[in-house]
Structures are given as structure tokens and as C-alpha cells.
Amino acid sequence: MERLWWLLFASGQIIQARCVKWDPERDLALLRVTSSQHPPALSLNHELKIGTRRSRHESQLREAFAPTSSSFSFPYVELADAVPPGGRALLCIGHPGSEDLEIGRPSVATGYDVLHISEGKFRGYAKGQDVQDNSEIGALMHDCWTYWGHSWAPLIEKGRKEKGGEVDGEGMKWRLVGLHSSWDDQTGMRRGIGWEAIKEFLGGFEGSTEE
User: Is the separation of the CB atoms in 154 and 93 below 8 Å?
Assistant: First the structure.
């Protein structure tokens, strides 16, 4: 677990991180950044698209993921307060593979963007499956489009007011409710790691300043 990992952000920024927690049953790992390049000046101007169209959510997502001050920090999204209701609209922000694995011959480019936003809905959890056990296949179900390379892509819902209802327009909030992990080859349903598993996994690490 002490192994160091090199990560490459979509902006081109290179990060070095150390794994500080791993849970094979929940299918989750937590990395702590140990060193980093300074972010490129235009890192937050990287285009977010749905297919070949400019995303109508782009400006809101940039605001939600932007650093909160002029000091050096990383884009992030907060964990939601609770599991979303069934049918809640979701966005999946993923990195689809550059090679087409469905065409039957090698070295054919997919043409997908480095980051791809797909839209779908939260479809609840697989009947009879423990939401904390994602070792074989994720318990969460959703129908956002994904491709090879999307594993552990964030599943994000719009924030809600205290008394329910979505926050529209300026100040729209976005919250993490799960991570895409796999798909069911029998039904085609996308699967993932749910809010409960992420919440339990993070445990005492929330707000921790441990080195």
C-alpha cells in the first residue's frame, strides 16, 4: 500500500500520490497527494462536452469544481448528504478509452474527448446485494453512458434545498453520490459504488490532516 502512484490530470498536470487506505470489498482506495506540478494557467478552461456538443452544464461545473481561493488547490466535489431518490438525474464525468474495443480490429480511434460528460439517472441498488460489497460487481445502478476507461468515474447529482427541490441557475450545487465501476453484461445496466460505501470507507479520513 506504500507504493507511489503517478496521476495525470486532463489539464496535463502531473501528480504523485500515496495510497493510504484500500478496501477490496468496497472496491475503493484513497490516495494522498505527496507532490505536484503547479497547475497550468488554463487548467479550468479545459472543454467539457457531451459527445461533440459543448455541455450545457459546463459553466456550472467549472464553478462547482473551481478552487475556492487564489492559492494553489485541487478541483474537488463534496460527498452528498444522503442517497439520492430513485430516478434522480445524474452526470457521469469520465475518461473513455481512445481505442475502439468493439470494432474487432486494433488501433482504431474512438474519437472521444479526454473528458466526457454523460447524462442519466440513478436506478437504485441491485436487489439483495449488500451495498457495502462491490467486490464482484457494483451494487449501485445507473444508466449514464460509459465506456472502457470510465471505471471510478464520479456520479454527480444536482444539490437540493433543505426542503427538497433542485437549486437552479446561478449557485447550482453538485454533489458526489457514487462512482461508476462496471456494467452488467446480462442487462446492460451500468453499476457502481454507492454513497453508503463511500461514506463508510472515508470514515475518520474526512477532514484529517494526517501526514
Answer: yes
